[in-house]
Amino acid sequence: MGRYIGSACAQCRREGEKLYLKGDRCYTPKCAIERRNYPPGPHGQSGSFRRKASDYATQLREKQKARRVYGVFERQFRRYFAEASKTSGVTGAALLQSLESRMDNVVYRLGFASSRKQARQIVLHGHFTVNGKPVNVPSYPLKAGDVVSVTEKGRKSPYFQSMTKELSRRAVPEWLSLDGQNFSGSVLNLPSRQQIDSALKEQLIVEYYSR
Predict the structure, then answer these.
(1) SS3 state at 186
(2) The sheet that has 176-179: what strands, in order across it?
(3) β-strand partners of 187
(4) CB neighbour list of residue 187: distance below 8 Å, 6 or more residues apart
(5) Beta partners for residue 178, in sequence order
(6) Angstrom distance (rounded) from CA 92 to CA 110
(7) Same domain, residue pair 35 and 109
(8) pLDDT (tens digit per residue) in 95-113
(9) Domains in the chain: how many in total?
């Protein structure tokens, strides 16, 4: 199965909340949740199909929500969970830590893109290096001490030149540092659960895969 190419807004409406999949648009009145806060499809607005969700349905929805937020396939997500379950810490927190340390997410968190989807595109286009080496894999796992930089060619492009002033005053998560003038950022440490700004209920995801 290929990557989802349908409406990002439909995914937010399906989950009944903003997943911030379209960047700045999500903060405006144009956001689909602001205009049509009901599930997509012919029966969404009537609500005639709604019923009390089972525990399984609640767990499934949380897992799907996490996949959509970070833009990963089911097989990828299952692999992240399997790796997290082998750690000595809390499985749910380890899962979110792995997702947050993806290359595309760090590029997004540093402010080089307005959404994770956009971050994935510019990473694929080869605009970044990690510790001086070109990286064009959105799922590339970063670790503490890694330095992510825009390539010399990329810095000259209109896209990056237009964000110079914005980067100089950009606030980033405490587990990252940003050098806006030099178009680079560093991973100070892998984020703890308290440092991850996410409303996801990861325990429900753990319960889903532990059935």
Answers:
(1) strand
(2) 133-134, 128-130, 147-150, 184-187, 176-179
(3) 176
(4) 101, 106, 142, 143, 144, 145, 146, 147, 148, 175, 176
(5) 185
(6) 24
(7) no
(8) 999 999 999 999 999 999 9
(9) 2
Q: pLDDT tens digit string along 11-63?
A: 665 656 666 565 655 556 666 656 666 566 555 565 544 567 799 999 999 99
% of the chain with per-residue pLDDT over 90:
68
In a domain, 197, yes or no: no
- Written as one string, the DSSP assignment of 111-135 is TSSSSHHHHHHHHHTT-EEETTEE-
- Domain with 133 in it: 102-187
Contact 43, 49 (CB under 8 A): yes
| Angle between the N-to-C axes of helices 74-85 and 202-209, in degrees from 0 to 180, rounded to the nearest 10 | 90
CA 208/CA 58 separation, integer angstroms: 9
Give the 3-state secondary structure of residue 104.
helix
Task: Indicate whether 112 and 176 sit together in one domain.
Answer: yes
* HSE (side-chain half, CA atoms, 13 Å) at 130: 20
Cα 59 to its chain centre, rounded Å, is: 19
CB 185 within 8 A of CB 148: yes
CATH number of the domain to which 145 belongs: 3.10.290.10
The predicted-structure confidence for 144-157, as pLDDT tens digits, reads as follows 999 999 999 999 99
**What length does the chain have?**
211
Q: What is the pTM of this model?
A: 0.80
- CA dihedral (25, 27, 28, 33) in degrees, to 10, reads 90
